[in-house]
Amino acid sequence: MTRLIPYPQVRQTDATAQTKKEFTSDQEVRWCPGCGDYAILAQVQRMLPTFGVPREKYVFVSGIGCSSRFPYYLDTYGIHSIHGRAPAIATGVKAANPELTVWVVTGDGDGLSIGGNHFMHVLRRNVDLKLLMFNNQIYGLTKGQYSPTSPLGKKAKSTPMGSIDYPADPVSVALGAGATFVARTLDVHVKHQQEMLRRASLHKGTAFVEIYQNCNIFNDGAFTKLTDKETQADSVLEVEHGKPMRFGKDRSKGIVLDGRLHPQVVDVATVGEDTLLVHDETNELCALVLSRLGGDGLPTPIGVLKSIQKPSYEAMLCDQVERAVQKGRGSVQSLLDEDSWVVG
Amino acid sequence: MSKVVETVSTVAIRFAGDSGDGMQLTGTQFTETTALAGNDLSTFPDFPAEIRAPAGTLAGVSGFQINFSSEAVYTPGDAPDVLVAMNPAALKANLRDLKAGGMLILNTEAFNAKNLERAGYAKNPVDDGSLTAYRVFQADITGMTLKSIEDLKLGNRLAVRCKNFFALGLVYWLYNREMQHTEKWVEEKFKDPVLRDANLRALKAGYNFGETAELFQISYTVREAKIAPGKYKNMSGNEALGLGLLAASELSGLELFLGTYPITPASDILHFLASKKSFGVKTFQAEDEIAAVCSAIGASYAGALGITTTSGPGLALKGEAIGLAVMLELPLVVVDVQRAGPSTGMPTKTEQADLMQAMFGRNGECPVPVVAARSPGDAFFAAIEACRIAITHMTPVILLSDGFIANSAEPWLVPDMSKIPRIDVKFRTEKEGFAPYLRDDKLVRPWAIPGVPGLEHRIGGLEKQNITGNISYDAANHALMSKIRAERVEKIADDLPPTEIGGDQEGDLLVIGWGGTTGAIRAGVERVRNAPVRGERRRIGHVQLRHLNPFPKDLEAIMKRYKRVLVPELNMGQLVKLLRMRYLVEATSYAKIEGMPFKESEIVDAIRAELEPRAASRDELESRGSSREKLEVS
Fold first, then answer.
1. In 10 A of CB A202, how many CB atoms?
2. Most exposed residue of A141, A260, A270, B331, measured as fewest CB within 10 angstroms of its CB?
3. How would you classify residue A289: left for phi > 0, otherwise alpha for psi between -120 and 50, otherwise beta?
């Protein structure tokens, strides 16, 4: 992309020699002790140096919330912006300079409540950026109101008799918006999270990763079933492209779709592995089925649920501009002189 | 038979019809031809709010007024000399403005029972004697149009739509205009040869009708005006503003990024810039007003020239984001093409009531520079100035325009880009000694854009420590930063040129206006200055402010050189309050809030009343349909 005159001509740093230390800012981290965000921060700081992108090219954009304090703790360019609007700001950053690597950090309140609109549109447009949503099913920063992902009946500061809101599911909303990459992981699953971050970083287009995160002060234990050693095997379905859907102790359980499109848990030994659903990242319908799993005896899927390739918004934007410029760059004087006449 | 040709100096013609009748096109073509004929002119399109209101109703009337002259023209004309009414609703809606004795051209075919009823006429005004005060010319414009093209077999619906060209041709004859420009336009615009021929024929048929029909015995000429030599083009405000933004991009070397959302009357700026991709312009139609301004902020953060365009309701939505831009201290231009409010208001009517919103519409102490365009042509320079301030002082700037400026057109002296000063941009690259909020002598922080190694930093909406930019809740720091943000805006006034004063440089009365009222005020001031009362000439000055925040430094001294100050505005008194607040000056407000521009005569009356305050009573002024408020200083 041709740049006009004042842009700085600088030499990029060597992306192969980066370490976690360089990516860590000098700011004291102020999340509550025991917050799930620490784990996420650690994995991001560990993984970013490995993606082959020079540190100066990263821009982290956040909104408002505990999640959104994230940029302060990374030594990269960052904007801590206003509630819900990070995807819109990030779209402007990426569109103006597509050579930057843009990450958006949001939460279930910031991203799905006030920011629900911008969330939907950035995914719909497929802007090439990574969007991490720390879903703790509560409003942490403002001290404990329910959020759009809190379960029905949730007793919180603003809902002492229990929430009467039906929750929305971020993955379902993302798929409905036409997202090209949708993944889910858990704050405590270190290796899995790292892999999700790696996959997201490789994706060209909007990469949405929902991270179930424990807010130990205002909503402790929301995901215990998924993280507790006793229950996690039966509650979590780790999906991988091309592999049959198996979970449970010794991976003895599997998922099938019955004749009326109802997912069923089956015993693999009984039905045989070849009858199980095989995960296909490129199949929209597969992702849709997975998005409705969870609760009612069905496990919650984690992993890359969907990954397809489509031209990204800013690539198409820049392409249109390039093509127009190639036909002949306009000059303002010639535009001013157009349709003019001379007096005297 | 030989017909008389009369020379007149100034004429105002209003074309009015149903919104599907093509009156805007007729008016625009007549305007271009008239500009080429060398007349000075000003136009005022009066759009209905609905895209297609039910045919024949008052809600659907669309009008276009052009005032042209062999003298200087400053306004579209207080009242038309000629009204072309294509249907009863157009007559009903516009008749009251026609001058007594004015020419009324009616399309008789449309004056049938159905249309008369839709327009709310119990009887046909053509027959009931209600039009005796005017010179009425009845012509079956529709019928004659159809006749002239009947062998082309166009089909009734399309054929009827050619009648606007008939009306145009007729008025061309009436004012002895050349038709080449319109003929060439039709040839280029209509690829379908049948449509092209139909329109050309209708045009000629209208002209010939004027020439041959006994109905019209007199035609008129308006001689060329003495216009200063130079290169001119016909320019409307939205286009000029868009060109100004492009110019600012060229002058600064920055890439233009427009994040915006369609809204009347600003959408045309988006359309204009969206078609200018060959200039490297990126236009982004966001999902809403807030995403629009946020995307522009993101673009500025990345080193582009971030612009957003909107009208009043959109500015209201953008408040929080503009506050963020103030905290981030990034360049951003927010264009508000004002329309009548409040709330949805009257989208196609003009007003200038967003000044207070521009000044104060954010939480906390959140100063934002405000620049206002003064005319369609001035919008070009106002846009460049807004961008200059935004870039040079690392701040959002609100650029105010209005519906009248946006859609009105005037001949405009084409500027020479090589004579316009460049806008300096320095992106920070030096790592040594860098701090995100380390300021220069203008209190401006460095523009350190992502992609430059060694300058990695985080900024945000929380209060920050001066120099380091780290989050800070320190009491003294907040006081310091608040003062710095205010002072940084005040320092913009250090570089402003001396304020231009029209008319007398000192004397009895200073009229201060802002925005699109320039022409009416100038015309009104000239009228009073040139009409001595009891042998005494009144000395009146006229300042049309471009900078509303900060005010120019010389304004206070200028105001003191006059006995009185009058502030005409299309709102309920906003600039007048700012002036009184800042300077403790006893300025008088002349406020009109009708969704219509000022008439020259209204300004004249207000000036006269201000010069002789006891002569006109409040009741007298109110009966003239405008309100005037004298604010008392306690």
1. 11
2. A260
3. alpha
Q: pTM of the predicted model, to two decimals?
A: 0.94
Report pLDDT for B56: 87
**ipTM of this predicted structure:** 0.97
Q: How far apart are CA B106 and CA B109, in angstroms?
A: 9
pLDDT per residue as tens digits for the range A5-54: 678 888 888 888 899 999 999 999 999 999 999 999 999 999 999 999 99
Contact B230 A72 (CB under 8 A): no
Paired tokens of B194: 């049948």
Task: Decide: helix, strand or coil at residue B335.
Answer: strand
| N-terminal to C-terminal alpha carbon distance within chain A | 44
Coil, strand or helix at A107: strand
Closest CB from B253, B286, B453 relative to A56:
B453
Residue type, B504: D
Average pLDDT across chain B, whole number = 94
A29: its two tokens: 């981290």
What is the distance between the alpha carbons of residues B629 and B589, in angstroms, rounded to a whole number?
5
Q: Where are the beta strands (DSSP E) in B204-316?
A: 218-221, 230-236, 256-260, 282-285, 305-310
Q: Which two tokens stand for residue B136?
A: 């009425």
Cβ-nearest to B38 among A88, A331, A343 = A343
Residue type, B501: I
**Which tokens in the block code for residue A326?**
């190639």
**B462, closest residue in chain A (CA to CA):** A80
| CA–CA distances in Å: residue B583 to residues B324, B344, B515 | 30, 34, 21
Q: What is the pLDDT of residues B596-610, one digit of tens each?
A: 999 999 999 999 999
pLDDT digits 0-9 by tens, A83-103: 999 999 999 999 999 999 999
Provide the 8-state DSSP code for B111: -
Closest CA to B470 of B459, B481, B484: B459
| pLDDT over 60 at B616, yes or no | no
Short-list A288, A105, A91, A80, CA closest to B436? A80
Q: What angle do CA A74, A78, A84 make, to 5 degrees?
A: 115
Which helix (H) or strand (E) segment is B93 a member of? helix B88-94
Q: How far is CA A102 from CA B128, B305, B506, in A?
A: 73, 19, 58
The DSSP symbol for A335 reads: H
Q: Report residue B632's pLDDT band, with 50, 70 and 90 as the boundaries.
A: very low
**Distance between CA atoms of residues A241 and A305, nearest Å:** 8
Q: A76 vs chain B: nearest CA distance in angstroms?
A: 5
Residues 6+ apart with CB under 8 A from B489: B367, B368, B369, B393, B395, B549, B550
Q: Is A17 on the interface with B (CB under 8 A)?
A: no
Q: What crossing angle do the helices spanning B180-189 and B23-36 adopt, rounded to 10°?
A: 130
d(CA B230, CA B76): 23
Structure tokens at B69: 């002259």
User: Quick one: tokens of A264?
Assistant: 């069923």
| Tokens describing residue A138 | 């509560």
Rounded CA gap, B86 and B324, in Å? 51
> Measured between CB atoms, does B72 come within 8 Å of chain A?
no
Convert the pLDDT of each residue in A308-336 to its tens digit: 999 999 999 999 999 999 999 889 999 99
Helices (H), ranges, A272-331: 284-291, 313-326
Name A329's Cβ contacts closer than 8 Å, sequence gap at least 6.
B278, B279, B280
Nearest to B380 by CA among B224, B235, B225: B235
pLDDT digits (tens, 9 = 90+) for B59-105: 889 999 999 999 999 999 999 999 999 999 999 999 999 999 999 99
* C-alpha to C-alpha distances, B94 to A322, B84, B98, B104, B106, nearest whole angstrom: 49, 10, 7, 11, 12
- Does residue A79 contact residue A61 with C-beta atoms inside 8 Å? yes
Count chain A–chain B contacts defined by CB atoms under 8 A.
Answer: 235
